[in-house]
Amino acid sequence: MAEIKALIFDLDGVIVDTAEYHYAAWKRLADQLGITFTKADNELLKGVSRVKSFDILLGLGPVEMSEGEKEPYRDQKNKWFVEYISKMTPADILPGVVDFIAREKENNRKIVLGSASKNAASVLKNVELIDAFDAIVDGTHVSAAKPDPEVFLKGAEAVQVAPKNCLVFEDAAAGVEAAINGDMYCVGIGAPEVLGKAHWVVPGIGYIKMEEFKRKIESL
Ligand code: BG6
Ligand code: MG
After folding, report:
1. Are 200 and 216 in contact (CB under 8 A)?
2. Which of 22, 148, 168 gets mutated to test ligand 1 (max ligand atoms within 8 A of its CB)?
3. What's the mean pLDDT when you consider all of the chain?
4. Is there an atom of ligand 1 within 6 Å of 42 CB?
5. Rounded to whole angstroms, how far apart are CA atoms 194 and 201?
6. Could you tell me if 107 and 210 lie in one domain?
């Protein structure tokens, strides 16, 4: 296998559990609009941009809306989300993340963020992790949504590492696909039923040992 020189982390659901806050805010909006929205439906929104997420949500219910009418609803969802994340502290970082990043920095691997969120910098500031990254690429830097690999390719470029030397950590099916489309290695964080296209699936960053990952890849 190619040597891993850069680690690219998705944010929501990988570094912090903000996937729950996105769900809570979309659910609040769905209730207001009279659209039934479940946790299973929410899987379709993970890793997906705000604009595309709202279109998926509208597709679930009886509500018809023109393009021009949509923005205030997306803004409202974001206001709720921003309210939730404003209360975050370093205690909200998922188990094992801080130690894993520190260890891999010592191993001279570049640490990169590759998130679809336009709120990524705020979240990282609130949990005091913003300085841990060699490069941050988020929803304010990309035009194509995952499963397009743009966000990860830009991350790799920012630290001057070839895609084949990058390993992506993702909790969303669209994100795993984006990594594979970008010709990168991918570890899925979550359920194998959802993230089956990843090279390896674990329940959380705290479970990852790079030696084990190498053995896993070599056995594929
Ligand atoms: C992704 C989340 O990281 O960011 C999605 O998984 C979210 O659920 C997307 O819709 C966009 O986030 P934001 O903060 O720009 O609305
Ligand atoms: Mg995610």
Report:
1. yes
2. 22
3. 96
4. no
5. 10
6. yes
